[in-house]
Model the fold of this input.
Amino acid sequence: MPTLWARDYSNEPMNHKSTGFTETKTAILLGFCLLFFISTMPARANPTGLPSAVSNLMQARGIPESSLSVVIKKVGSKQSTISHYPDTSRNPASAMKLVTTAAALQLLGPQHRWHTQALIHGQVQGNTLDGDLILKGGGDPWLVIERFWLLARQLRDRGIAHIRGDLVIDDTLFDQRAIDTKPIDGKSTRTYNTPPSALLVNFGATAITISSRQNGVNIGAKPPATTLKIQNTVELSNADCAQQGRRIQLDLKQGASGATLSVGGRYPAGCGASTYRRTLLSHGPYVYGVFKALWQQLGGTLSGGWRYAKTPGSAMPMAQLESVSLTEVIRYINKFSNNVMARNLLLTLGAHHPPATPDKAAATIKEWLDQSGVMMPKLNIDNGAGLSRDARISAQGLAALLESAVAWAWWPEFLGSLPIAEVDGSLKKRFHNIAQPGRLRLKTGLLKDARALAGYVIDRNGDLWVVVILHNHPKAASSVGIEIQHRILETLF
Done:
């Protein structure tokens, strides 16, 4: 792999626990105090066109209005307040996660849970297994390291300490041939590019921590993996502790049994600790290396290697880990736009006829939309996360889904999963000068040449509004794309 200067672009905290609504739909609507005014719009010749402030900005920046789709509509009204290119098919980026999570809530239920199993294939003599340990994945999107440790702990509590066979990885619930795609931007070590898996341990990510000490620099890896070796050649410097002063160089070399990460460069002495989250190991070596490290910490030994295989019928269950609820999973997906979790969730919808593929899941979602009366003729779900150049949806189609969702029983859970402006998630630092915190609940989306914003707004009268903004243009991902979104929302107030 070529050498790259390391900067941490990850927007996916590994173990952050967020909160959200658990109240009923009525309680949510009544709970907003000092609700803002949105219903009075400035007069304009075309009542469904773009606000003049937006048109003027786009003209000044050389951005054609045809690159933008906007639908803003009060729930229950017959006509949209703004309807600009509503039927144009566009790339929604991460706003596609709204389709995936809404479908999951309807088809699986808010309390759906996944199960990961540990089974043995062989004979147990005392505390020794003369045979293989099998880890069978059930598609859990949030099998973080703490929960993976709980599975290992269960196994140790059953009296097994020494494993003389291999670690067998059964991820056959998902069709890996259909989902092992190339990274969208060629950056295979970025955590957002991690492919999904039926046994998705800790998002496949490793947190590399760099910290200064009196005579040098410490390098740590969390979670530790026996298949990852780290070579530390970082030198202390007297540079200012600004980002440009942290000239850390990561060089990754893959081997037959794992990988070696060389960490070099110079690190300012007064910088404290810095963390870079990366996908350093492929799936098999990662699961094996992390499990073996945990197993050794628990006082166990594992003599063999690892391999992929389907669980034999004669295998004996020894431990099982139940996931957190779907409600908690979608809250993490939407608030922090976790791509690999969204992809795992999509594949779960296609797992009724294993092995699951994105096409099977997409067919399931489209059937549900048709039965629900939500028309999306131009929908292309692709991987369900929006991390795609091929995903497509219209603003009108997404707005129709958002409006329909309000009438469904799981809407409080869906609403509670969305980022809240000035409060949390991807909107924590957005829209400070538009409304008070808690008034805007919108999913963001961002790719090269694509920016999106979609969700809900509640006015001072208690009326609920649907907002969808899809922008596809080379300048959409720049600061002007944010300004366009800001002015659209600002006009409403």
Q: What stands out?
A: The mean pLDDT is 89. The first strand starts at residue 4 and ends at 5.
